[in-house]
TrEMBL record:
Protein name (database record): Aldose reductase-related protein 2-like
All residue ranges annotated as the NADP-dependent oxidoreductase domain in the record: 42-242
PROSITE patterns, per database record: ALDOKETO_REDUCTASE_2, ALDOKETO_REDUCTASE_3
Record-stated family: Belongs to the aldo/keto reductase family.
Domain of life: Eukaryota
Length: 269
């Protein structure tokens, strides 16, 4: 927190959220991994982490605190915590038409917790001709040295960064059949009807569900494009079409954490 503030132009962060409820071994690595490439957990209870975060509010270091990647049972447990001082104001979850979160979103909203959708484009966003990180010859060479595969299909940078940061190489394979949101014909069709890009439709989808959305780009023209989503409206039928694309496909599976006691994605929602 102190580190985050030292880079921030503000005197407080608002809101501050738990990176995840998966508490990991303390140390220099953000994602400490064992030899088999699985995260090394700590025994910390996320309710204790929450208490520490409540102190940040009391100290005036943040105005509000939130959560990310919790399932509904974990939220219930947090809300029922004896002496809970502050409720989470926001829940940040992966959401897009292939993972519509039709139970978790209304549940959070019914509890007064707003929802933010991350990975709105499913991260499969390469244009034809773009370099494919996981096919980079240098990465392939390192992978071969470790007798590991480079993932097939389009590249997902954070996975590689995550694993490199811990000096091991456990790249999760993307399946060749993984869906590509930005190339979905039904979404393209809706976009064409509104003279908008598929990315803009994917952003608008959340706005009409009363969900905040945080697309990421390092390209000024795309940042600009991603803001131009307030001058059109998807029809009820179009929203239903988008919701109908759900296949409970998750890009951020956090597969290295599946054995963690608090791994959230085995629950129905
Ligand atoms: N809480 C969590 O566990 C969690 C997990 C993952 C991500 N997040 C957060 O979610 C936010 C979203 O980032 P994300 O990486 O998950 O996924 P994302 O926004 O779905 O995808 C980012 C990718 O989309 C591309 N892109 C952006 N605008 C585009 C457009 N208009 N047309 C085509 N491609 C476009 C970007 O490429 P260019 O840069 O080349 O434009 C980038 O490769 C970030 O703030 C991230 O920190 C949170």
């Amino acid at each position: 927190m102190a580190l985050a503030l030292s880079y921030s132009p503000h005197s407080y962060l608002s809101p501050y959220k738990t990176g995840t409820q998966l508490k990991l071994d303390a140390g220099e690595d953000m994602f400490p991994l064992d030899e088999s490439g699985m995260v090394i957990p700590s025994n910390t209870d996320y309710l204790d982490t929450w208490e520490a975060m409540e102190e940040l509010v009391d100290c005036g270091l943040t105005k509000a605190i939130g959560i990310s990647n919790f399932n509904h049972d974990q939220i219930e447990r947090l809300l029922r915590k004896p002496n809970l001082k502050y409720k989470p104001v926001n829940h940040q979850i992966e959401c897009h038409p292939y993972l519509t979160q039709e139970k978790l979103i209304p549940y959070c909203q019914s509890k007064g917790i707003s929802v933010t959708a991350y990975r709105p484009f499913g991260a499969h966003t390469l244009n034809p001709g773009d370099p494919i990180l996981l096919e980079d010859p240098k990465i392939k060479e390192i992978a071969a040295r470790h007798k590991k595969s480079t993932a097939q299909g389009t590249g997902v940078g954070w996975r590689v960064q995550t694993t490199f940061s811990s000096q091991s190489l456990e790249i999760e394979d993307l399946n060749p059949g993984d869906p590509i949101l930005l190339e979905d014909p039904k979404i393209k069709e809706i976009a064409a009807r509104h003279k908008k890009s598929t990315a803009q439709v994917l952003i608008r989808f959340h706005i009409q569900r009363n969900v905040a959305v945080i697309p990421k780009s390092d390209k000024p023209h795309r940042l600009e494009e991603n803001f131009k989503v307030f001058d059109f409206e998807l029809t009820k039928e179009e929203m239903e079409t988008l919701l109908g694309l759900n296949r409970n496909w998750r890009d951020c599976l956090m597969a290295q954490s599946v054995n963690h006691k608090d791994y959230p994605f085995k629950a129905d929602y």
